[in-house]
Write a structure and sequence with these properties.
With 356 residues, this protein is α/β, with parallel strands linked by helices. 36% of the residues lie in helices and 19% in strands. Helix 5 links the parallel strand 4 and strand 5 (117-123).
């Protein structure tokens, strides 16, 4: 089977490419080497190229170049995207053109080439806030957190009926879609474009909603870096990681090698679990919730300090808790993450990162 991996020189894409190659797949690879991920100069070689897989310097928005790489391809594994929260609203056109227009061009080229299977890198950010329960009213949609509460250090979302603080619950793939950032809106649009394409062409789309991915080759020192890389950089400068709010924000940190394993399972299973003409989504997570404060403490301990500092600072639009249910991926794809956050985050303290 031949697989085309987009974004193959990137953080996640490079691990996916290595995993597929090690499993015996015929892999074609492309990457546009976005400066936000790779710096002003693209690397002289990539992990994939060190394994003998040439990575074509191609932008997914270039329909002619993409079409030339689709010959003989059975599945496209679409990792290429502009990621992270960005700097501000001025990033909006770039996110939309890279993520949504790029996906539209890719889908059109796949139709012309009669490639009918797509594994799409989506994200947990499509959910917005996670799932919550009230001790008195059961499952509820939380109120927006007020600045008064946040200024007073009351960070937990409240019940819309009784105003009690809520407890988090795991989020299934059937949860409502409610993006809260530009990046999140583009990931929702990618899923919708893929679904519409599948309906019109009879194709199959398997969307992998990644949770907080970390590990070797993570980008560092950019406005688009993840919190784990930001804390790593602080520690390497001898500074304490600055933990916002009270550190109790809950996430699911999943190692990039497990994410690569989820992509392998998706490619192997797509014909069995996705009906022709449809999209099916799966959470990709460790299944072991960790708070931001706990993650910072593990990282600081493995690095030899300094200890994290809980600042009480906040961003009003931040999500308090978002924790996934891993059950659908386990039952249907046979995927279970193998690397615990405790071990993976400790190892990450010394893992090589991608420079700006």
């Amino acid at each position: 089977m031949k697989v085309l991996v987009t974004g193959a020189a990137g953080f996640i894409g490079s691990h996916v490419t290595e995993s597929l190659t090690a499993s015996g797949y015929d892999v074609a690879a492309l990457d546009s080497y976005l400066p936000a991920a790779h710096g002003a100069q693209s690397p002289s070689s990539t992990p994939a190229e060190s394994e003998g897989i040439p990575v074509s310097r191609v932008d997914v928005r270039d329909s002619v170049a993409v079409a030339s790489l689709l010959a003989g391809v059975d599945v496209v594994c679409h990792q290429a995207a502009m990621v992270g929260n960005g700097v501000d609203v001025a990033d909006l056109p770039e996110y939309v053109t890279q993520n949504d227009f790029g996906t539209a061009v890719l889908l059109a080229a796949m139709h012309e080439a009669r490639v009918s299977r797509l594994v799409l890198a989506s994200s947990m950010v499509v959910y917005g806030e996670g799932a919550y329960t009230c001790s008195a009213h059961g499952s509820v949609e939380p109120c927006l957190r007020t600045r008064t509460d946040l200024d007073e250090g009351n960070f937990e979302p409240r019940c819309p009926t009784c105003q009690r603080p809520l407890s988090w619950a795991t989020v299934p793939e059937s949860a409502p879609i409610a993006p809260r950032s530009i990046y999140a809106a583009t990931k929702v649009a990618q899923e919708h474009l893929g679904h519409a394409w599948a309906i019109q062409t009879g194709g199959r789309v398997l969307a992998l909603r990644y949770h907080n991915v970390y590990g070797p080759r993570m980008p560092r020192d950019t406005p688009y870096a993840g919190v784990a890389a930001i804390f790593r950089s602080s520690l390497e400068r001898g500074q304490a990681p600055a933990v916002f709010e009270d550190g109790g924000q809950t996430r699911d940190f999943v190692h990039v090698r497990d994410v690569a394993g989820a992509n392998l399972a998706a490619i192997q299973s797509i014909d069995e679990v996705v009906l022709a003409g449809s999209l099916r989504a799966y959470n990709v997570c460790s299944g072991r919730p960790t708070t931001i404060g706990e993650m910072a403490r593990i990282l600081s301990g493995a690095n030899g300090g300094p200890d994290p500092v809980v600042t009480g600072d906040y961003r009003a639009a931040d999500v308090r808790h978002v924790v996934a249910s891993p059950e659908r991926a386990r039952q249907e794809l046979g995927f279970t993450a193998q690397i615990s956050p405790e071990k993976g985050i400790a190892d990450f303290a010394h893992a090589p990162l991608r420079g700006p």
